[in-house]
Amino acid sequence: MSSELSILALYGLLVVLTVLLNVLTALPQVGLMTLGGPRDDMPPLTGLAGRVARTLDNSVVAMALFAPAVLILSAKGAFTAGTLFAAQIFLIARIAFVPIYAFAIPVPFLRTLVWLAGFLATVYLYLMAL
Question: Does pTM top 0.90 for this prediction?
Answer without folding.
Answer: yes
